[in-house]
Amino acid sequence: MTTIKQFLDDSYRLINPSNPTQPLHGNDLSFGLRRLNDLLTSYAADGLMMTIASTQTVALTVGQEFVTAGPPPPVTVPPTPPLYDISIGRMANWESAWLNLMGVDYPLVFKTQDQWHSAFKYQPLSGLPRFIIPFPDVQSVSFRIYPSPSQFFQFFIRGKFQLPPYMSTDDTMLTLPGYYNRYFLFAVAKDLAMFKGRMAAWTPMLEDELMKAVKIIQANSEVDLAIVGDEESLLNGSWRVRAGV
Questions:
Q1: Tell me: the pLDDT tens digits for 52-72?
Q2: If we measure between CA atoms, which residue out of 106, 116, 104, 101 comes closest to residue 146?
Q3: Which of 49, 104, 186, 223 is least surrounded by Cβ atoms within 10 Å, i.e. has the fewest?
Q4: DSSP conformation class of 3
Q5: Is the pLDDT of residue 108 over 90?
Q6: Where are the beta strands (DSSP E) in the chain?
Q7: Residues 6+ away with beta carbon under 8 Å from 156
Q8: Is 228 a residue whose pLDDT tops 50?
Q9: Mean pLDDT for the chain?
Q10: What is the rounded distance in angstroms from the CA atom of residue 191 to the CA atom of residue 193?
């Protein structure tokens, strides 16, 4: 399994115009680790370059209005309680959300904050939740559930979550899929060339290879595959009866 040190060594070789086998020295490794983590963090802006989505679930209690996704708590000797309902990372891209009650799925309709503030005035209101409104923050993203549930539901949300930073060059790259390595190798190398004063080593051929890898990665992204249906047909009368509202 590739370690961060091996990965950075390969990235530096791409931008060393004189001797591609020259060993790393000084702060090359620590500097490369910072650039690598910066790229991973920047990908969480819109989720486009983060190709792996996951489905998370939370048990909703009666009257619960918010579900929040954020980073896991720091590793300490005593157990640290999670700070968020979903503690795997800040959500970078949300694709779909739904509730489940006794084996029946109830899809939720995403609304923007503007739509929420301009149209939804009936508070408090509980029943069968129908809408979900994201409220992004710096370290986390909160989702308002409206109406709040009048009974217990299982809440599901699918999307992409910000990856945790690598802490050491001895770490392995298990959090990234194998097909991601070639793209990320060229992406990190280009950043290193810019910050290390080696842009002359970034040739048109390398740029072409990076662009080819970008297209492959974007083709693996779910970000453009979200299907928005007719929200008026999402809930019919029988669904509301089975949900108890």
A1: 889 999 999 999 999 999 988
A2: 116
A3: 104
A4: B
A5: yes
A6: 54-60, 66-70, 86-87, 91-101, 104-107, 109-110, 126-127, 131-136, 141-146, 148-149, 153-161
A7: 55, 56, 57, 97, 98, 99, 100
A8: no
A9: 83
A10: 5
